[in-house]
Amino acid sequence: MSEFHFIRPMWLIALLALPLIIWLVKRLQVNHSGWSNILPPHLAARMMEQGGPTKGLSVVPVSLIFILATIALAGPTWQKLPQPVYQVERGSVIVMDMSYSMYATDLAPNRLTRARFKAVDLLDNLNEGDIGLVAYAGDAFVISPLTQDINNIKLLLPSLSPELMPALGSNPLAALDLAQQMLANAGHVEGDIYWFTDGIDQEDIKDLNDWSAQYPHTVNILGIGTRAGAPIKLPNGELMKDDRGAIVVPKLSDQFLYGVASKSSGEYQTIRSDSYDIDALISNAKRVQDKDSTDSDELVESEQNLGDQWQEAGPYLLVVVLLLLLPYFRRGLLLGVLPALLLLTPSEQAMAIDWQSLWQTKDQQGQKAFNQQEFEQAANTFNDPMWKGSSLYKAGNYQAAAEAFGKLESAQGYYNQGNALAKMQQFDEAIKAYEQALALSPEHSDAQANKTLIEQLKNQQENQQQNQQSSDQNQDNQQDGQQENQQQQNDQRGQGSQGDESQSQQDQQSDASQNDEQQSNDQQNSSQQNSQNDQQNSSDSSSQPPEQQGQDAAQNKESQDNAVSDQQQEESAENAQQQAQAATAGDQPVDQEQAQKHQQLLKKVTDDPYLLLRNKMQLEYQKRRQEGSNNGVKKKW
User: Which residue ranges traverse the bilayer (predicted)?
Assistant: First the structure.
């Protein structure tokens, strides 16, 4: 009850009319009957006294009703609502210094490696809100747009190195400007910037202080390195030298960084081996966020945009007022209404639903369902097109989400519409949506990056389709050739079937000639053996009777016939095997060859995140050079 106050205290001025109300009630008590206006006063008083005491308006109930109604209209309250509507979670951007001084070896193994580890620790401790990643050297680039998927950022961190950056040097002002654009495009009026760097030039201090005074973001800085410094050891093992040939020894300028952080209510910490530095940065960000949430200006803005933040007790007083008014409408009505009210008392669940509809708007109910990841229910509840589209996008209904985002006709709406269309692989429509977003906000870096990526995917898809069509055409040509060869074979077989007798005779002659050749070869091969056995055979034949010689001749002839038939069977088996192989080759599915070609195409697609990031930043850097956009003071390392 310590926070008791009235939401609309101006209504209490109406209590000044209470004396007038009392005077009117007393006047009505005198002139409560219509006969007093007709009869003379002396007769009316005489007759009214004879009629006994009359019943009219009482001063006490009427005064009580007026007081309670006025207090109810003033809005008494002492309890806050649990959450505001439309309050967007605080966004965070990690800014990584990728100048060559990050290769200094005053921290083992070097500053860059230690900075990566600290960035991972920071991501593990940032449990809520959108997080983005920016890297800078001579110019700044978006490595990852604002997202709640910290694992994606963790996968990109190992790819960051000074060799990845298109421009050498150090331009921290460009990095902070890019981080501010990311937060503004995502709808974050205030955000947290975690800056990992090993120092700045003295010439940059004024620009950085002006930037802190212009934007309300909190810059928390983690200094990477030591005051003593160390040489810069390049990946090839050489030490970096300046123009005069002297070895460069970058030192940590922590006093400059501390001043820049304090200008934006931020925290500065020098890198440590434990987790104290990261915990201090996050604690400061939460402390600033809690301070901003209690600011009166933010409270007024939230009341205008988000609805009441205080739970009113006025409706309870109105119930009492209605009960006091019932006797004045009809006699005995109060006794009949009370049992009906007892019978119509709602259940606990129905009371909760009615209470939610009574005290929360549709957008408030949708925000609650969205926070509970009930995206379909949130989409059906929201009236705001942006939140409705976000709920549909989270629910996987990309078509409806694109339609909802298109109703906004704003840069952020067209950007979200392009993302939904890209999810459905409608690349042409997505590119048009990104172009509309860039037309309304040319500095929308996320829309430009997504547009470039979708164009690359579209070209890649078209190339794959062309390769697929060419491969299908080649396969059709191969199939046509196989069909022609098969037709020729069938024609030859048809011609062979017409001349079966001649062909069979030719086959027999060819077989006989082959057998003769084989026999001659066999005879030549066994000539020596036959010559050795001639005498014995002649003696045996001369000694054998004529019947035995006839049987031997018949056996020799039969063995020759068997040899010829075996050779014919072998040739027919070989021909059948060749025909089967040809048929199998002709009937092989084309899927295997097509799968091989697809595999070769997939091998040509670049999936190296380092190469993809380098190409993306190189294109963006060339575009910036053409536009002539360049801010801040640069150094060579």
Answer: 6-25, 56-78
Which range, of 170-184, 222-236, 438-452, 503-517, averages the lowest pLDDT? Answer: 503-517
Minimal CA–CA distance to 370: which of 379, 357, 383, 359? 379
Phi, psi of 194 (to 5 degrees): -105, 110
Q: 347: Cβ–Cβ under 8 A, 6 or more apart, which residues? A: none
Structural tokens at position 378: 């949130």
What is d(CA 488, CA 492) in angstroms, rounded to the nearest whole number? 6
DSSP three-state, residue 220 = strand
Q: How far is CA 209 from CA 135, 223, 257, 287, in A?
A: 20, 18, 11, 22
Q: Would the pTM count as exceeding 0.90? A: no
Cα dist. 406→185, 287, 336, 388, 409 in Å? 17, 38, 55, 12, 6
Phi, psi of 442 (to 5 degrees): -60, -20
- Residue indicated by tokens 């009117």: 24
118-142 tens-digit pLDDT: 999 999 998 778 999 999 999 999 9
Locate 318 and state its tokens.
């109105």
Farthest-apart Cα atoms in the chain, separation? 187
C-alpha–C-alpha distance, residues 252 and 199, integer Å? 5
Distance from C-alpha of 72 to C-alpha of 600, rounded to nearest angstrom = 76
Residue 425: CA atoms inside 13 Å, Cβ hemisphere, count? 5
Number of neighbouring beta carbons within 10 Å of residue 615: 14
CA dist 388 and 393 (Å) reads 9
Query: Model confidence over 489-533: pLDDT tens digits?
Result: 555 554 444 444 434 444 444 444 444 444 444 444 444 444 444
| Mean pLDDT of the 288-304 span | 55
CA 136, CA 140: separation in Å to the nearest integer? 4
Domains in the chain, CATH or no CATH each: 1-80+311-360 (no CATH), 91-299 (3.40.50.410)
- From the number of C-beta atoms within 10 Å of its C-beta (0-12, 13-18, 19+), residue 209 rates as middle
Q: Measuring CA to CA, which residue among 144, 187, 191, 602 is closest to residue 416?
A: 187
